[in-house]
Amino acid sequence: MKKKRVYLILFSVLILAFFSFNLSYPNYFNGTVDFLNSKLGFQFPHFWNPPFRLGLDLQGGTHLIYEADLSGVEEGDRTFAMQGLRDIIERRVNLFGVQEPVVQTQETAGHNRLVVELAGVKDPAEAIKMIGQTPFLEFRKQRPQEDSERIIEKLEEIQGKSLEEIQSIENWQLSLEDPYFESTELTGKYLKKSELSFDQNTQKPLILLQFNDDGAKVFEALTEESIGKQLAIYIDGVLLSAPTVQEKISGGKAQITGTFTIKEAQDLVKNLNAGALPVPIQLISQQSVGPTLGMVSLQRSLTAGIYGLLAVIIFMVLFYRLPGLLASIALGIYIALILALFKLIPVTLTLAGIGGFILSIGMAVDANVLIFSRIREELKEGKSFGVAIEEGFRRSWPSIRDGNFTTILVALILFSFGTSFIKGFALTLIVGILVSIFSAIVITRALMRVFAGTVFEKWRWIW
Predict the structure, then answer these.
(1) Are 3-17+291-462 and 61-143+180-286 in the same CATH fold?
(2) Half-sphere exposure of 416 (CA within 13 A, CB side)
(3) Which residue, 277, 295, 287, 364, is CA-closest to 70?
(4) What is the per-residue pLDDT for 79?
(5) Are 179 and 151 in contact (CB under 8 A)?
(6) Dihedral angle at the C-alpha atoms of 319, 321, 322, 323, nearest 10 degrees?
(7) CATH architecture of the domain formed by 61-143+180-286
(8) Residue whose C-alpha is closest to residue 89's, from 193, 238, 233, 196
(9) CATH number listed for the domain at residues 3-17+291-462
(10) Which of 39-48, 124-133, 409-418 has the lowest mean pLDDT?
(11) In terms of Cα–Cα distance, which of 114, 72, 81 is closest to 195?
């Protein structure tokens, strides 16, 4: 390869390394910027510094297990009811402001349970109270335009005012109401079930609704007065759908049509059934992880990782000399790149995830060991340094590819079927392996090619 291209690749790698290092740990860059701004009077901006997203075991939080009472749900509908309930609980904890909540269903020895992990929650009692409510499904009719305008005007009137100022405004309570839809007596207790179906002519998905006898009467009266208007469906105060009523509907059966995808229609059916079939849940286990314990675990993990990295660098330099030193430089760039990706994706880091990251460092070193061993064999056969480098990388690639591919395959299986902590381990391992391949094949190769055709290639003892 021409030297010009080698230097271009190396320059690109250095630019990538610069941004990766500063994105991973921008304190040095930002400190330098502050010094220059104070001395020269400039206004240089700081480097972007998004935080790492830490999991429950590192930043603390709450681990909750709920038992679901499905005695009132038919056997064939229980899995569907649990999926709908999971979606409702996930929406609730998201509204509570929890970052990356984990909500999973489990079936153990005939018991149906919800596992909820809330990282960084400072008031678990409030979250528990919110989670424990039964999903509330309601149907709201469209307001007259003049009523909507009055509410919107009131919302504009209170905007930017304090609570005391708002309460002094006449009819300020209007601002608490939905400006477009008003509540009706039709709620989830009248809905027997909803199910997914398809239009026989267009094959587009639609949702079928079936109300009980009392609900059929309420629904008939409601649709009669709402012809040509929207009838909104809310669950826990969140709008799910707002179909337009085409005609008076009798008999307690209706269908919702629209431009749904199959996935959207399935989600809507699950949410409707979760609100229509209240599934009581009872808290049976609560475990809290303090942020102090989490930080201690994080510090110990980082200390172990640093010691392990130093041991790897010493080993590589002692056994592979200059190539080992170049591999260590590539390893440093690899770590910065991985940490930058963890911020950008972003990846929720748990102790298991950090373990996957550290394991991927070993995989990166393993690839370099295969490459350097092959290069030594090529040099022993009397080949020139440049040819030995190219042949070493080419002939070691199948082993590197196959070894990493099988590990990625296992990690994908773990990610698909594992629990939250296992998923974190698998995800960081997959990302780490992919970047480690780039580090060994691109970065290390570029660094090695710089020495081709120089006086250093004649010093065989350093290779």
Answers:
(1) no
(2) 6
(3) 277
(4) 83
(5) yes
(6) -10
(7) 2-Layer Sandwich (3.30)
(8) 238
(9) 1.20.1640.10
(10) 124-133
(11) 81
Measured CA to CA, the distance from residue 410 to residue 403 in angstroms comes to: 11
Which residues does 154 contact at the CB level (< 8 Å), separation at least 6?
Answer: 169, 171, 172, 174, 175
Minimal CA–CA distance to 428: which of 56, 53, 49? Answer: 53
Boundaries of every domain in the chain: 3-17+291-462, 61-143+180-286, 144-179
Q: Using CA of residue 119, residue 120, residue 124, residue 129, what is the dihedral sign?
A: negative
Residue 18 structure tokens = 């610069």
CA dist 411 to 309, 423, 427, 429, Å?
23, 9, 7, 7
Give CA 439 to chain center in angstroms.
25
At residue 406, the pLDDT reads 94
* Residues in Cβ contact with 449 at an 8 Å cutoff, skipping those fewer than 6 apart: 1, 6, 386, 389
Mean pLDDT of 225-248: 88
Which amino acid, one-letter code, is at 325?
A: L
**Can you tell me the distance from the alpha carbon of 231 to that of 317, in angstroms, rounded to the nearest whole number?**
72
Render pLDDT for 296-312 as a digit per residue (tens, 0 to 9).
Answer: 877 888 888 888 889 88
In one-letter notation, the amino acid at residue 191 is: L
Q: Which two tokens stand for residue 438?
A: 């780039």
- Which residues, at least 6 apart from 37, have a Cβ–Cβ distance to it below 8 Å? 43, 44
Per-residue pLDDT, 307: 87
45: preceding bond cis by omega (within 30 degrees): no
Alpha-carbon span 219 to 190, nearest angstrom? 9
Is a pLDDT exceeding 90 seen at residue 398?
yes
Q: What is the pTM of this model?
A: 0.63
pLDDT at 23: 92
Output the pLDDT for position 133.
Answer: 67
